[in-house]
């Protein structure tokens, strides 16, 4: 963040800016739930801090700094959501495709829910991490996109951040009664569009860790017989920005051996996680021996001891730098 000047950030001291920074991750997670994009969420937080230090002279401490920053962040997000477009997952767009269906042309990046690195969204407090992880699931964020922007903000502030009706009303310049009414409408919509919950991922859970390790081993070996035994019967494979997804272990295997055959001999680089889920940088063979090039950020969803979702995000030009991944892998000389 650029250093404020006396003209634009009267009364802003280094201590105040440090206090702002202490809220960066939770504000980024909030903006991500609102916007469905990690890149837009980062932009929203930057704009929030810019507006905050410009108007800090008028902040009189009648609310907590956290509440005040959320009020600004909400207004930033509502400004950014000024339009009909909502982000989605391929599963929200249409029914499953046949594994041999012609691949469609990619859709623009603004169409899709994007993954967010755990490091952008979670603070250092494990308890806070656990309490917010479920609401960063891809399915939850996609469901939130069905809500009008103000209802979306109210649902997240009340049910995720645990703001009171009064605090939420102040942030949105509404009455508490209007907030409560909107919350009821938001809950009704969410009950219709939110898919069944999948398991939370716990790195300390030996069974889950083994499932993920077994999946990676089977995928890198391109052993479809083993891989399909790890998949839930209604597993979904999607590949944004392609408006295509397939469902079921047999169709996943058929897709992998058909359109996906170029991924044979891939390498998976484990990440610190995305959306609270196990995630990998997926590199495919380049055609040059000992060299692999970016293919996807791969995010796994788990349920009942099986893999329930295979999410291959193909926008590697934008996503690999976001996750701190190198532009290629090479075998050691």
From TrEMBL:
It comes from the Bacteria. Interacts transiently with the RNA polymerase catalytic core formed by RpoA, RpoB, RpoC and RpoZ (2 alpha, 1 beta, 1 beta' and 1 omega subunit) to form the RNA polymerase holoenzyme that can initiate transcription. It comes from Nocardia jiangsuensis. Belongs to the sigma-70 factor family. ECF subfamily. Keywords: DNA-binding, Sigma factor, Transcription, Transcription regulation. Residues 139-190 form the RNA polymerase sigma factor 70 region 4 type domain. Residues 20-82 form the RNA polymerase sigma-70 region domain. Pfam families: Sigma70_r2, Sigma70_r4_2. The keyword Signal does not apply. Coiled coil: none annotated. This is Sigma-70 family RNA polymerase sigma factor. The keyword Transferase does not apply.
